[in-house]
Design brief:
about 325 residues, alpha/beta, Rossmann fold, Arc Repressor Mutant, subunit A, 2 domains, 11 strands
Length: about 325
């Protein structure tokens, strides 16, 4: 829906421990779009403000400081709240920014939309607004996010997630794709394409899977399941069945599958596939073997099945992945 009758109020939060680029990036994006619109003889669409709990926030270990134009209680209605990425110890960062949490919740309940960039999802998660909703964050911190916010539905590999007036993005530079998504939502497809060209961004990118390194979640405390994870990782080239794995854990199949999914956020088959594909990715990155050799090395005998699973997990075909990442 395009909003032409009034400017869209954009409140970019300035939290403690924020990543500077994810504060200035949104400010720059929406300001550039305003310039595009004005150059075309149209009114500016976005009213962009930096908002914080105090007038000066030290960032990057004190090397930089940001000066929000508005304090939290000076914002009557935030049309869209941008939560920048957080860096470092997330628990400590959440404690430093605890005053932002009730403000975000209050604004959301009054109709505001909220967008978290990369690890800003940890602050959005703290509000409880993500409970029962799909969301994204940096793939590297997916296990930690799930442990802290088990009620949220983290979607692996997704660049942009939207549900119930809440938006979130994948890792690192993926936040630019979320900003483009928001520009298209408010200003239209043509302006979003213009912005994508200006910022040299791929407007069609939907997955961060090609960048992810699979790290099976093992901080769940279920020792029997952790041992099975290690068995899979150490023997992924061998043939074994789910029933055999359940027997190793001294569990019935249904109970084993239920506990495995609860602990790892993957089904047993998904976990085996991801372990195999992670090994295939490492081989395609560093070795001169052809794709058939890599396929056999990781325990696949069917080329189509290997290609389909690889693309599902990594977001690229084996050939495309090797072409992009092979170090030789």
């Amino acid at each position: 829906m395009r909003l032409e009758e009034a400017k869209k109020n954009i409140s970019i939060l300035v939290p403690e421990s924020a990543v500077i680029q994810t504060i200035d990036g949104p400010r720059y994006m929406f300001s550039v779009v305003n310039n595009f619109l004005q150059a075309a003889g149209k009114p500016a669409l976005f009213d962009v403000k930096l908002v914080g709990a105090k007038k000066e926030v030290k960032l990057a270990d004190g090397h930089f400081s940001a000066h929000p134009g508005l304090l939290l209680d000076e914002v009557e209605h935030a049309g869209l709240i941008i939560i920048p990425a957080l860096f470092g110890d997330f628990e400590a960062a959440l404690e430093k920014n605890k005053d932002l949490v009730p403000w975000i919740v209050r604004q959301y309940r009054h109709g505001a939309e909220v967008a978290s960039l990369c690890t800003g999802a940890f602050l959005l998660g703290k509000t409880g607004l993500l409970d029962g909703k799909k969301c994204s964050t940096h793939w590297l911190f997916a296990n930690q996010f799930r442990a802290m916010y088990p009620q949220a539905e983290l979607v692996d590999g997704r660049i942009v997630t939207e549900e119930g007036r809440l938006y979130s993005s994948g890792g690192a530079s993926s936040f630019w794709n979320l900003l483009l998504h928001l520009v298209e939502k408010y200003a239209g497809r043509a302006i979003a394409i213009h912005a994508a060209k200006f910022f040299a961004l791929d407007i069609g990118r939907e997955s961060q899977s090609a960048f992810a390194v699979f790290q099976g979640q093992k901080s769940h405390g279920d020792e029997e399941i952790r041992q099975i994870q290690e068995y899979i990782e150490n023997n992924f080239t061998e043939k074994f069945t789910v029933d055999e794995l359940a027997g190793m854990a001294a569990l019935g199949r249904r109970s084993f599958e239920r506990r495995f999914k609860a602990a790892t956020s993957n089904t047993v088959i998904e976990y085996i596939q991801r372990v195999k594909i992670e090994a295939a990715k490492r081989s395609l990155e560093a070795e001169r073997k052809n794709i058939s050799e890599v396929m056999y090395d990781v325990g696949y005998g069917d080329a189509k099945a290997f290609r389909d699973v690889f693309k599902k997990v990594a977001g690229l075909t084996p050939g495309a992945y090797r072409e992009r990442y092979n170090t030789r």
